[in-house]
Design goal:
Helix content is 53%, strand content 0%. It is built from five helices and no strands.
């Protein structure tokens, strides 16, 4: 039996493209970027761009917007990448108390 892996966050981000300022897209990219950093990527924007099949500049733009919206932390000096914030996790309904 051939089982295919389906990444819902990745597919949702692709579906929301090319509206780079859509809040739902920015949240999904925040989640995917955080996951890429935690996986040990040394170049998370490039790796995520390759995974999404987007231009690295587009991914970088969305990541910067996510930092402005406080969905991602600002990277600390000497550390590669940023991390997802509790604000973003709450909006994604992945953390804390929320209404369903």
């Amino acid at each position: 039996m051939d089982i295919e892996f389906f990444d819902f966050s990745l597919e949702r981000a692709k579906m929301l493209y090319p509206d780079l300022y859509n809040d739902d897209l920015i949240l999904e990219i925040s989640f995917l970027y955080d996951r890429t950093v935690k996986a040990g990527s040394q170049v998370p924007v490039m790796d995520l761009a390759r995974e999404l099949d987007w231009a690295p500049e587009e991914v970088g733009e969305v990541v910067l917007t996510a930092m402005e919206y406080k969905y991602l932390t600002n990277p600390k000096r000497g550390v590669i990448g940023a991390t997802i914030t509790n604000k973003a996790l709450r909006k994604l309904k992945l953390f804390g108390k929320h209404k369903v």
